[in-house]
Amino acid sequence: MKIQHDLSDFTEVPPITLHVAGDLLITGWDRKAIEADTDEEDPDVVIADDQIHIDTSGDLHIQLPTGVRLSLDVGGDLRVQSSRSVIQINAVGGDINIEDALSIEFKNIGGDLRAVRASTLTGRSIGGSATVDEIGTVDIKDVSGDLTVRKADTVSCNVAGDATLHEIAKAVAVNASGDLKLMACHGDVAGNASGDVQIEVLGTTPRIRVNANSDIRCILGEAVGANVRVVCGSDLHVTGAGSRQTVEGRGVHTFYVGEGEGSISLVANSDVNVTAQGVIGGLRSVNKDMTGMNVEMDRLNVEMERLGREMESMGIDLGREFGSLGDRIAEAIGGKLRSKLEKSMRKAAIKAQAKAGKRGFSFEFDIPTPPIPPRSPRPPFAEESANEPVSDEERMLVLRMVEEGKITANEAERLIAALEGEHEG
Fold first, then answer.
1. Residue 311: its pLDDT value, please?
2. Which of the chain's ends, N or C, has fewer CB atoms near its CB within 10 Å?
3. Considering only 48-62, 245-259, 357-371, 387-401, which range has the smallest mean pLDDT?
């Protein structure tokens, strides 16, 4: 059936509501009129001063004025072209493909989402994967598949698969159950991945907090200036202008890049690779043997928990600036990630305990670098490590080790004394 209505009598076209059981194709045009085709013989059509409503049990292809406000329920697939509209989607059973909208808000999508050119994209749940291009604010609670974003200002999302983001201008807060890839990022980043992380940082004074259950590869642009802190379960490889260094074995490492006051924190259960176009200096690595016991992975656990709290705070800060952007990462850190890290670190601690006394060392050295103007490097968290007394978390960690039979009470006593001595020194 063909539907035709002239809307030229309206000073402003009222909101349009479409309920379509099949597929829906919307095309925007500059005419003040509606033309539609549906395979239902008698669709429900209401044209009133305050609303336009079309309900059909079949497919619908409709042309409508650009810039109109839309409310949609679709049983099949949805495609919107050149509408330049405010689009509110309650539910879509199939896939969504939207190009050139003003803003997009959705609740539930059964299939995949592709959205191109809009000011905002916000929503609750995507059953498939999501591909987003040239959208200012991307805020999605859950994506069941993969997420790909190209050219956005801010991105916030929980992703069950892999997440790949390119050219994010202001801020990222992403939690991925697969791999996380962040390329050409100019703003702040709070990210977590159960797999690998690859991140390219281009901002001059970035704030970066990244956790990975596997490897991290970090690429720093020429303009980046930051204090860097790395906690890794395996080896650290650092390459900068005129220098290259490999530190074998798990540990906590600090160094600086360039002259800026940014902050970069990288935590990985495996290897970390850092490549910088600028000058790297002041590399310091610590791996301590306390009273004949190799407890470095337990200390690493404390560091990771501490970083989790810092990321949570960062999420709150981002939330103040970008609305709900930081809430996602704070929620993820507070629940799934912290639990996962604790579990992984407990396993590592058991292995470390089995090797107790067999390996323990402390080293401290600088990477040779070309002469640079004098500076006062401030390795991130250095004051916290030097001045803070033994924390409740550290004491509880030692007590758990006793309770689980990893160490004796006497060994615990010596360990706490060693920790207190380290903090005092």
1. 45
2. C
3. 357-371
Between 303 and 91, whose confidence is greater? 91
| Tally of CB atoms within 10 A around 410 | 10
3-class SS string, the chain? CEEEEECCCCCCCCCEEEEECCCEEEEEECCCEEEEEECCCCCEEEECCCCEEEEECCCEEEEEECCCCEEEEECCCEEEECCCCEEEEEEECCCEEEECCCEEEEEEECCCEEEEEEEEEEEEEECCCEEEEEEEEEEEEEECCCEEEEEEEEEEEEECCCEEEEEEEEEEEEEECCCEEEEEECCEEEEEECCCEEEEECCCCCEEEEEECCCEEEEECCCCCEEEEEEECCCEEEEECCEEEEECCCEEEEEEECCCCEEEEEEECCCEEEEECCCEEEEEEECCCECCECCHHHHHHHHHHHHHHHHHHHHHHHHHHHCCHHHHHHHHHHHHHHHHHHHHHHHHHHHHHHCCCCCCCCCCCCCCCCCCCCCCCCCCCHHHHHHCCCCHHHHHHHHHHHHCCCCCHHHHHHHHHHHHHHHHC
Asked if residue 247 has pLDDT above 50, the reply is yes
Tokens of 236: 């650290």
Q: Per the confidence metrics, is the pTM higher than 0.85?
A: no
Residue 260's pLDDT is 75
